[in-house]
Amino acid sequence: MAVAVQDRDTVRAQARYVRCSARKARLVLEHIRGKQAAEAAAILAFQPRAAARDAGKVLATAIANAENNNGYDADDLIVVAAYADEGPTLKRWRPRARGRVNRIRKRTCHITIQLAVAEPGEVKRPVRRRPAPTPQAQPAPEPEATDTEAPEAPKPKPKRKPRAKKTETPEAAAEQSAEPAVDAPEEESDGT
C-alpha cells in the first residue's frame, strides 16, 4: 500500500506565474510523476514542449533543496507529486474587422514538484537485459553413407517472382526485319 504524501517527509519547489497554460504544463508533468528524480530530469530534458523547460528548472531546484537543506542523496529521491495550478490570466485585446475586438487570454500557472526519499521496494530499478549469447558455430556432423539415397529436400520458393523479360516494341521489331541479316551468309546448294 502506498504511503500518503502528507505522511512522508517531502521537499517542495514551486515556480509561480509561469507564462504557460496549466493545461499544457499538466501534459508534461504527468510523465514524471512517480519516477526517480534523475530519470525525471532526463525525461524533461528530451521533451519538445516548452513547458518541459520550466518544469525541468523546478525539478532541479527541488533536487538542490533536498541535497542542501535536508542532506538527502539525489539518487534516492522520487517524484511523489507534480502538478500545475492555474495562475492569474492576463487579458489583452486584438482589433478585428468592423470595429470589433477579440479578447486574448495570456494564461499563467504555478508549477509545483514534491520529492521524497524512496522507500525500499518503491523504486523498481530497470532491468538491463543483455542479448542472449550467440552459440558458437560447431561443424555439423557428417551424415553416414548409406546405400539408399534419401530424397532431397524440396528447394525453398523464391521470395518473389522473377522479372518478366522485356518484349520488343513493334517499332524496333520492324526495323530489324527491314535490314538484311549480314551476320550469317547463306550457303548455296548445287541442287542435287
3D architecture notes:
This protein is an alpha+beta fold. It has a domain at 8-117: Ribosomal protein L22/L17 (Ribosomal Protein L22, Chain A), CATH 3.90.470.10. The chain is 24% helix and 21% strand. The chain has four helices and five strands. Strands 1-5-2 form a three-stranded antiparallel beta sheet. A two-stranded antiparallel sheet has the order 3-4. Helix 2 runs antiparallel to helix 3 (50-69). The longest helix is centred in the N-terminal third of the chain and has 20 residues, at 50-69. The chain is elongated. The protein starts with 9 loop residues before the first strand and ends in a 14-residue tail after the last helix. The mean pLDDT is 84.
What's the helix count? 4
Whole-angstrom Rg: 38 Å
* Cα end-to-end separation: 113 Å
CATH architecture of the domain at 8-117: Alpha-Beta Complex
**Portion of residues within helices:** 10-25%
**Reading side by side through the largest sheet, how are the strands ordered?**
1-5-2
**Uncertain stretches of 5 or more adjacent residues:** none
Task: Tell me the β content.
Answer: 15-25%
CATH domain topology of the domain at 8-117? Ribosomal Protein L22, Chain A
Could you give a short account of the major beta sheet?
A: 3 strands, antiparallel
Shape: elongated
> What is the CATH C level class of the domain at 8-117, in words?
Alpha Beta
Mean pLDDT: 84
